[in-house]
Structure formats: structure tokens, C-alpha cells
Amino acid sequence: MSLEELIKGCKKHDTKAQSQLYKLYASKLFSLCLKYSKNYAEAEDNLQDAFVTIFNKIEQYKNKGSFEGWIKRVTINTALQRYRSVKVFDIINEDAIEDVEVDIINEDISLDFLLNIIQELPDRYRLVFNLYVLDGYSHNEIGELMKISSGTSKSNLARARLILKQKIEAYKANLNSQSL
């Protein structure tokens, strides 16, 4: 069955088409959910919620643009919705923090370690970091999605990078001390 046929089937609430669409995209969308979740269990919940939303709103997809892009946006919005109801974004002094770069070019740092330290970030920092760095959203777009100012988005990104830099430096120092 082609993707177009699957989409048509899903619009008709055909459970076989829904199942096939799920199988086709679940692993990709789960990776996306992991980026926006605190842990594996929350990512699983976000994935299930995303597919419920996808199937409920599939009528809104008008075959314009990439279907995969559409379901990724739905998935990100579904994950972010969990945080919109909880006040995770504080109003902070936007001039109080300087942006830092994080050097992760190191063969000793595994992808699992990076994912873990990103997941450990406070919600507001993790969400902005993922949207900006990993998914390419602008600060204005993040502001609209998260209902915060672009300055708060920039500040949260800078704080996320600072925390990640500190954790990576501590990890490297620990590796160096073990090898001595």
C-alpha cells in the first residue's frame, strides 16, 4: 500500500491503514519523542498521544508539503503540550546569561551519554535546546510554540548549553582521571 493510500485509509478510520502507518513511522517518531521527554516511559506516552492526535487530525493534512514533516510537527506539538499545562517557563533577566558553545567533538562521548544529559536538563531548557539545535526552529518560532518571548528562548538555550558544557567537561575530567 502506498503512503497516499495509507493516508486515505486513515482518513476513513481504517484500522489496518492506521496500523501500517504506525509501523511505518513509530520508530522515527519515537526518536523525536525521546528528545522532548524526560525519560523512556514519557517518550512512549508522548508517542501514543501523538498517534492519537495524528489519526484524529489526519483530515487536516491536505497533501501539501511533506507528510512526514506534518506528523513530526504534530508529534513535537503533542510533546510540548504536556509542558504547556505546567508552568515550566520562568520570566528571567534575558541579559543575565552569556551564550556558550558546547564542544561535543570527542570520540569518548557516546550518543547515549549525550541523550541522557539532554534529558536531564530542566524542562524549559531541554525543550528550547531541542527545538533550536536539533530541529532547527528559530527563536521566534519557539516563542510562538511555547508562548514565551524570543529573548526567553535565547536565554533558555544559553542556560541549556551552559549546563551541557559543564556536564561534558565533568565527564571528560572523570575520564581523564580514570586513565591516569
Automatic annotation (TrEMBL):
It holds the Pfam family Sigma70_r2. The keyword Transport does not apply. Keywords: Sigma factor, Transcription, Transcription regulation. SUPFAM superfamilies: Sigma2 domain of RNA polymerase sigma factors (SSF88946), Sigma3 and sigma4 domains of RNA polymerase sigma factors (SSF88659). CDD domains: Sigma70_r4. Residues 21-85 form the RNA polymerase sigma-70 region domain. Signal peptide: none annotated. Residues 114-162 form the RNA polymerase sigma factor 70 region 4 type domain. It comes from the Bacteria. Belongs to the sigma-70 factor family. ECF subfamily. PANTHER family: RNA POLYMERASE ECF-TYPE SIGMA FACTO, RNA POLYMERASE SIGMA-70 FACTOR ECF SUBFAMILY. NCBIfam families: sigma70-ECF. This is Sigma-70 family RNA polymerase sigma factor. It comes from Winogradskyella immobilis.
